[in-house]
Write a structure and sequence with these properties.
Helix content: under 10%
Largest sheet: 5 strands, antiparallel
Structural class: mainly beta
Number of strands: 37
Shape: globular
Strand order of the largest sheet: 2-27-26-25-24
Number of helices: 1
Radius of gyration: 25 Å
Length: about 525
């Protein structure tokens, strides 16, 4: 006889409405990591939201700016947020220009501007545990400056934007000191003009940036590199950045050279002439981060691989790579070879690859239970997958340029740069009242959602009157009773104690009424 110690029953009942569900919580299954909250800053709106996994607002912060683009809940409970200052000299995706820090009640604590005709902060501003901030800055070079450095004039438009990574130490309400800086312009190689500086054999200098590499943008595109994320590894004192138009991630060791040295790069060895297009692994990627200590894949690198112009079609993947690094932070590179590994350590794609494609923005985070929280940025869709690559949670951002939108309408301008999950025990949440309110969308569907913490029964339902199963636990059979006040699509599934689906008892349209279903595990 087959014996079950515990049974988990998940019932999701979607009522037949005059309009279909278009936003908010779509899926909440056993195995979702519920011991915490999801934070996101809609790109076209000025609020930042904190919600529980039932899609109910727990807290929000207000600003006068739309994001530009990242937002972080710091360990001290303050919100660090990059802001779009609408710099007309740098009108490109990811434009920021202002970095602000707010307390829990949206009181502005610090506001620092990096935005003028010659430079502009963009995409990411990451808080460090010492109170400083790492951020990315575009720096404009004239055509004459670019040619003087060895750029091919045929590939120039009206200007060329280089990049720098800086660490800011706030000193006052609107001031800061730059305490560290790494500038691409100080780390160039070019093989176009022997009479100009930086001339050399590109393949002999993987620690340098090829000034004449044609990235994914137009040849004359001023935004030559389009760096879109920055991360810090305190163990090795290293910074990792994502160079979108090169389809590469770069790691800079701050302890080497005057201001740091590029010691590792991965994704597209054609950039440094140690591979071909067949060796390319990243395609316009975003959100490259080290997985923190204590997590299943700690120390490895997690990337949202957007997959734009991927051979075989456009589709996105979540990729983990295991870099060839030793305990001291040194990276192995064999003479004449590209940086290892040859392929990702672990990768996720949809069973129909084209169904999961975020052309731009987007991000991913490993959770404490080994799951992954994914943000498909262009569609504003968040979903969670477990280690077996099964979707266990799905949510669509309901916030557009005018704020929350009405359930049943088509969500517009609901893009999200990326989102973040914060565990219940996270220090930044300490001392704050976290009471779930209403769903963020307007005119939400009526539903009940019970959060799961650890191993316990789940009831995830929409518009239902009664749920029973008896006996529970059971051996070997149980009866399951539920009422449907409105006809709709019903899914009734049985899971074992590991969260694995055993069988689906009901999967399809059911009329309103009472139902009693028996399940015998021994059969």
């Amino acid at each position: 006889m087959k014996k079950l110690i515990l049974i988990f029953v998940s019932i999701v009942i979607f009522p037949l409405n005059l309009f279909p569900q278009t936003m908010g919580l779509f899926q909440h299954s056993i195995g979702s990591n519920d011991d915490g909250y999801v934070m996101f800053a809609p790109m076209s709106y000025t609020k930042t939201y904190l919600m529980d996994k039932c899609g109910k607002e727990v807290h929000s912060w207000t600003s006068t700016y739309r994001p530009g683009l990242s937002a972080y809940l710091q360990s001290d409970g303050n919100l660090l947020r990059a802001c779009n200052g609408n710099n007309s000299a740098f009108n490109a995706g990811g434009r920021g220009g202002v970095i602000q820090r707010y307390d829990w009640n949206s009181n502005l604590l610090w506001s620092y501007t990096i935005s003028d005709a010659n430079q502009c902060q963009h995409h990411d501003a990451r808080p460090l545990e010492n109170g400083n901030v790492l951020t990315i800055v575009w720096v404009k070079k004239t055509v004459a400056e670019a040619i003087a450095a060895g750029r091919n004039p045929a590939t120039l438009g009206t200007a060329l934007w280089t990049e720098k990574i800086i660490e800011l130490h706030p000193t006052g309400a609107t001031t800061a000191d730059i305490v560290w800086e790494w500038n691409v312009w100080d780390n160039l190689i070019q093989d176009f003009d022997a009479s100009k500086p930086n001339y050399g054999v590109v393949a002999d200098h993987p620690e340098k940036i090829n000034l004449n590499f044609a990235g994914t943008g137009a040849a004359s595109d001023a935004d030559w590199l389009h760096i879109n994320s920055v991360d810090f590894n305190p163990e090795f004192n290293q910074v990792m950045i994502s160079a979108h138009d090169f389809s590469e991630i770069w790691i800079i060791d701050r302890d080497l050279g005057t201001n740091g040295k590029l010691v590792y790069r991965w994704g597209n060895p054609l950039v440094y002439n140690r591979g071909t297009s067949a060796n390319q692994k990243l395609f316009s990627q975003h959100n490259a981060t080290w997985i923190p200590a204590g997590y299943k894949n700690q120390g490895k690198i997690l990337i949202f691989n957007n997959g734009l112009n991927r051979p075989g079609g456009n589709y996105s993947t979540v990729d983990i790579i295991s870099s060839p690094v030793d305990a001291l932070g040194n990276y192995t590179l064999n003479a004449g070879m590209s940086f290892a590994p040859d392929s990702a350590f672990w990768s996720y794609k949809d069973s129909v690859p084209s169904n999961f494609f975020g052309m731009n923005i987007s991000g991913v985070q490993e959770l404490n239970n080994g799951n992954f929280l994914v943000c498909n940025g262009p569609s504003g869709t968040f979903f969670e997958i477990d280690s077996l690559k099964r979707k266990v949670w799905k949510y669509i951002n309901p916030v557009g340029s005018a704020g929350p939108q009405i359930q049943g309408s088509t969500p517009t301008q609901n893009t999200v740069f990326r989102n973040s999950f914060y565990r219940t025990g996270y220090s930044g949440l300490n001392g704050h009242t976290l009471i779930p309110g209403n769903p963020i969308e307007l005119n939400p569907l009526s539903y009940t959602c019970n959060l799961i913490t650890g191993i316990k029964n789940e009831i995830a339902v929409r518009d239902f009157n009664l749920y029973q199963n008896y006996p529970n636990p059971f051996n070997p059979a149980t009866n399951i009773k539920f009422d449907i006040p409105n006809s709709g699509n019903v899914s009734l599934k049985i899971y074992d104690q590991l969260g694995n689906e055993m069988t689906s008892l009901v999967d399809g349209f059911k009329n309103a009424g009472s139902y009693n279903i028996s399940f015998n595990a021994s059969e």
